[in-house]
Amino acid sequence: MTENASTPFRNDAHYAAATRGASRVFIGVICALFLAAGATLVYLALSLDAHQVRQSEVYAARALQSREDKTGTALADYAFWLDAYRYTQDTIDTNWTFERDNIGPSLFETYGLEGVFIVGPTGATRYAVVNGARSDVTARDWITGDLVALLDRAQTASLEDDISYAYFSVNGTPAITYAAVIRPDSTYQQFDQLSYLVFVDILGKADLLELAQDFNLRELAAVPGITRAPSPSLALQRGIGEGVTFQWKSEAMGRSVLVRFLPMLLLLGVLTTLLIVRLRRRVHQASEKIERAQHELRISEQRFKNISEASSDWIWETDAQQTLTYLSERFAQLTGLACHDWIGRPLGDLLGHDPARLASAAKHGNAPGRKPIACDLRDSQGQRRHCQLFACEVREAQRLQGYQGTVCDITPEIEARAHIEHISHHDALTGLANRHYLHDYLDHCPGISASASQPMFLFALDLDRFKPVNDTFGHAAGDTVLKEVARAIRRCTRENDFIARQGGDEFVIVAPDCHTKEHAERLCQRMIEQINQSISLGDSEVNIGTSIGVVAAPEHGSSAEELLRYADIALYEAKAGGRNRFCFFEPTMTERLMERRQLEIDMRQALCRGEFRIVFQPRYDALSQAVLGAEALVRWAHPTRELLSPACFIPLAEETGFIFELSDWVLREACQNALSWEEALIVSVNLSAVEFQRSDLVERIDRVLRETGIAAHRLELEITENVMLEDATSALTTMLELKALGVRLSMDDFGTGYSSLSYLRRYPFDGIKIDRSFIMGLDQSQSSQAIVDAIISMGHALSLTVTAEGIETAEQLGRLTALTCDQAQGFYLAKPMSPESFQRLLTTPTNP
User: Fold this and answer.
1) Does the global pTM surpass 0.85?
2) Burial 304-328 (b: 16+ CB within 10 A, else e)
3) By CB distance 3.0 to 4.6 Å, which of 116, 276, 658, 696 could disulfide with 653?
4) pLDDT at 48 over 80
5) Which of 301, 217, 265 is nearest to 44 (CA)?
6) Residue 22 to residue 287: CA distance in whole angstroms
7) How deeply is 96 buried, as exposed, middle or buried, from its count of CB atoms within 10 A (0-12, 13-18, 19+)?
């Protein structure tokens, strides 16, 4: 009995002894921890000071690098600028450089450049701006350093589209000196003919103070040359030059922290020791209660664990302050995060929800129809997971003890919805926004209603020469070109610019941060240059261009419909002006567009109404002045605008596609009239370059020959050089097929193109027509006479008939006859006339 009764006592005594021993160990551990904490504090303080020194040196290097990059980028923009080359190469246009502030005072005001020089190939200073004002000082006198070596490095850097810079000094003050070659393009390497643009950034007291304030470098100072200076300091040298040494003072924050907190830590250690001694007395009493509580808790946790792990969601529990006290193992399985890493941390840090909203929802947590709280977390891979949070209160005796609930992962459903929404708003080929997203963006864009002093610009782009890519290489190649264009546009724009593909080869860019016309012009120029780059399609390369229409909001419109419509109008003006260019919208463009559309309507009806007239301008033998044939020309007897020349409506007919109907009519009328002439006379008809872009040209010519019955050798087709420029291979094939019909081919406006001689050798021409611009100066200029003589000799050497057009004086005709020109045409001989008048000319007795 006694033995049995004493067993619990012995257990209790053993437990008490173990508890006392554990308490002594605990006290020793606490003391050791405080000693370690003190040592750690000292170590951290010293480490903090060393880290501050290293960090300040990094900041100093970063500050100087940022300054070098900013000014270097500006120098590259100015030096590798075609206009800079044009206005400074031969002579310095001071009106362009200084008065118009292209390379002038703004460089001092904007970039703080105290010195701007244009130095010639020999090193002589051609232009100088010092402190924003014109100066006669030379760069070599003003800058102390090896400027010649810097210019030599600028030549080498130019091959990589780069610049050179070094640390020199000005009047004993360190200065960053930049140099770049002023060149027309990246391929131009004749450096002995090129000048240099030199920027000088003096690191004066104001500049050093600004750097010190921006990067927290106390009492920053700079001295020329590389010197041994105590830390913190930074010595910089860029290959050449004397270099510069920077020095500043460290804050020594670590020592300050050590002085403040080490005594406090010692005092806290003493107080903690006294408290532990007092609490040691109660450890034994509490140990038994804790043991029983832990036993009951283990049973409860096991029961709860069995229930929670059977659920597909993970379960959480917090105290009243929403600090996590429990996470089910399902949490680790679904997120990859460790439960123990989050126990004791706020639930809001994990799920990113509003704690007040959770408390409100938890009050009705058990009510039917409760709504979950949307939240998200980052899993172990850093991926964002979308979740739904359910919560309810845990109360004991009406007192809030904490919160419990579950979290459901709904990431797959959210990502599926987001993917569907992305597809509905973006172009599948380029990944850019689509038309629907563009309109939605413009409807909600605050920049549309911005002030007129800071407008927002919208750019409408349409690719030039894109259709031949599709026709020649197929739609897959066209898709490749569109994707390359999309990438080129992204390279030119900023991250917050909105880019959309309207459809086909049309793109729209909205630049909310582009507030000036000058910025918009530079953006247009960059996009034109980038899109003009060659694009590889397998073994072939293609070059396309782009035309851009620009509109400003709210000056030109405050709605998506207005801005897009006006941008299209400006785009049309750009294309009409020669393509591969940009044009800003002006209100007068709308009026011209309306006039153009009315003229287009009238033109399509004019053929049905019989308003077009055909006239003939005779062609003569230059020596005998006998009529050899006539050139068929078209006029439009407009009911309200009187008689219109081809220059008024042919370009519009080419653009709208009406040129094919009109050309068929002119060709048929010309051949029909020629049937009443003598068999020896020919009739010539002009073909538009647009007609060669369709594959039915030969079929159309053959059909007219068969319908009219005219002999094929009596028809001459006049072709301009633009036909060969568009697609040389296709043009040659078409011309060979035309020659197979028996018609004659003549190159019109010879001498105005780039490769006329090569065209004559390669293409099957029967004759050439010397452009009237050479004939106008024939009786006044020896050079014009020499050119005409050369053209005639070349034509005869190739067995071609040479015709001179635009003859207006007897002297011009006489000189052409002396030069053995074959045929002549011009107002001096005869103006264009009606078919009836030409018929009378043929029957007049004066005609041989």
Assistant:
1) no
2) eeeebeeeebbbbbbeeebebebbb
3) 658
4) no
5) 265
6) 11
7) middle
